[in-house]
Automatic annotation (TrEMBL):
Organism: Deinandra increscens subsp. villosa
Protein name per its UniProtKB record: Uncharacterized protein
Main subcellular location: secreted
InterPro entries: Leu-rich_rpt, LRR_dom_sf, LRR_extensin-like_regulator
CC terms in the record's Gene Ontology section: extracellular region
Length: 407
């Protein structure tokens, strides 16, 4: 009887050793949050062990997406093997908002990976806990799935410098958590829904696409801090409502579009603007004196337009001005303050119609330009200074006050 009891105890001891050994084989998995043991979940398809059920859920999505990648020059996907998703290149884990003890795929950063895939559908739009998706400088194409609007936590979306095409992805309008959107350097075309500018976005990059639309149709009442519209096909005049809609922007980037008409004097109310760039458009008329009220302006670019008249001294006297580009226009006169900036290399007025300065247009070219009659509405406002400047006078005007009627 005693021998039987001893034998049973030996069996129990061997069983315990096997269980412990098996546990150590799996790495004695513990929570990344508080060190407590985690329940493991087996993926039936591949027999892999995951530290959290949520990771086993996204594993097939990653595997399927990996199979669609046709080019991976940096061998990024070489690390996408096994159950340790949190250590895959470009994948980052964290606790989801609805369960602080769980581990989930929270963000993806593919910036600069140079991956080629025909679509992100079935991958990006199916990651339930994703908060950030950055995929700058790859070769992803296709369109954006409407299902992306169902992701409850996604607040940063960067698919810039890829090959996406088609109309603006309207599914983005349904994303109530989004605060950062970057779709620049793609092949999107058509118009931008005005509703985009009423959303609670902080940063919006739309430049370098093929959007074509009147500028006045898209500006809306928004608190966007950073907006780029450059290198598209926006057309029409800069709206007089620019002061209302762009008042909080530090950079107004309208370059390389098809904007036309005369500059509104309301640009003088963009008191937070550091960079104003409307180069390479079809803008015409004189520069309004109100531009001199941009007290924070460091860079102002109107090169490559059809502007004419004299360069206002009050603009050249802006305190923080580091670069004023007015080349390739039809200006005829500069005063002493502006000439001082030319000598310092701050002001560029090459290829204009200013007699006595080098690098100007020919007299024939200037005469041909001025032979055509040109007219700007609200001419009276062009010499109005809506701010007080010690050396130039002026009187403040509330931006809600309408401009004086035209002659």
């Amino acid at each position: 009887m005693q021998m039987i009891i001893v034998f049973v105890f030996k069996l129990i001891f061997v069983f315990i050793v096997i269980v412990i050994g098996s546990s150590r084989t799996h790495g004695e998995l513990t929570s990344l949050v508080d060190g407590t043991p985690l329940e493991v979940t087996k993926d039936i398809l591949d027999g892999l062990v995951f530290i959290d059920q949520r990771l086993s859920t996204v594993y097939p999505l990653i595997r399927n997406f990996k199979n669609t990648i046709s080019s991976d020059p940096l061998n990024i996907t070489g690390s996408w093997v096994g159950s340790d998703i949190c250590n895959y290149k470009g994948f980052y884990c964290d606790n989801p908002p609805d369960n602080k003890t769980a581990i989930t795929l929270a963000s993806i950063d593919f910036n600069g990976f140079q991956l080629t895939a025909p679509s992100l559908d079935g991958f990006l739009d199916q990651l339930p806990d994703l908060a950030l998706f950055h995929a700058n400088s790859n070769f992803f194409s296709g369109t954006i799935s409407p299902n992306i609007a169902k992701l409850p936590y996604l607040y940063e979306l960067d698919i810039s410098n890829n090959l996406f095409s088609g109309p603006f992805p309207n599914s983005i309008l349904g994303m109530n958590t989004l605060s950062f959107l970057d779709i620049r350097f793609n092949l999107f075309s058509g118009s931008i829904p005005p509703q985009l500018f009423t959303k609670d976005l902080d940063i919006l990059f739309l430049n370098n696409n093929n959007f074509i639309q009147k500028l006045a149709e898209i500006v809306g009442n928004s608190h966007i801090f950073y907006l780029t519209l450059a290198n598209n096909k926006f057309y029409g005049p800069i709206p007089r409502s620019i002061a209302k809609y762009f008042s909080g922007l530090s950079e107004v980037l309208l370059l390389n579009n098809m904007l036309s008409g005369c500059l509104p004097y309301e640009v003088g109310f963009l008191t937070e603007t550091v960079v104003f760039d409307a180069g390479n458009n079809l803008l015409t008329g004189p520069i309004p004196f109100s531009l001199g009220c941009l007290k924070k302006a460091e860079v102002v670019n109107f090169a490559g337009n059809l502007l004419y008249g004299g360069v206002p001294e009050v603009v050249c006297a802006m305190a923080n001005l580091a670069n004023l580009s007015l080349s390739d226009n039809y200006f005829m006169q500069v005063g002493p303050i502006c000439r001082g900036l030319i000598k310092k290399g701050v002001l560029d007025v090459r290829k204009n119609c200013i007699r006595g300065l080098p690098g100007q247009r020919s007299m024939v070219e200037c005469m041909e330009f001025f032979e055509k009659p040109r007219y700007c509405s609200y001419r009276q406002t062009y010499r109005y200074l809506p701010c007080w400047l010690p050396d130039f006078g002026g009187s403040p005007m509330d931006q809600s006050e309408p401009a004086p009627a035209p002659f």
